[in-house]
Amino acid sequence: MPSADFTVPVPEAKGKICRQTSRGRVYIQYILDRTYDPKKKYNKPKRTCIGRLAEDGVSMYPNENFFKFFPDTPLPERRPHAKRAPSLHAGPHIVFDRIIKDYRRTCPKTRSVNFAT
Hints:
It is elongated and about 85 Å long. The chain has a five-stranded antiparallel β-sheet. It contains two helices and five strands. By secondary structure, it is α+β, with helices and mostly antiparallel strands. It has helices spanning 64-69, 86-106; strands at residues 8-9, 17-22, 25-37, 42-53, 59-62.
């Protein structure tokens, strides 16, 4: 499950949140239920991942499951993506035109070839 590109504080639900390290990352898990195993005489928690711990150690990158269990969590304001300038869109075309012109100038056999088609 992909994580979000923003962080939220790790929930403070006593007895319901645990951390598990896997492949060098710390994942925040929500404990759904506990079932008692009479043979082994301990509880087995049923958990689901709700996100990944951020580098600061106090916030997390939430996933879809986070919003199922904590729907009223306030989300940070998202800035709209900046639009690209028209000159950035024209940049690759200008570069390719320059390469073709230089190629035609240095290779006399290709002057009659039409690269624009």
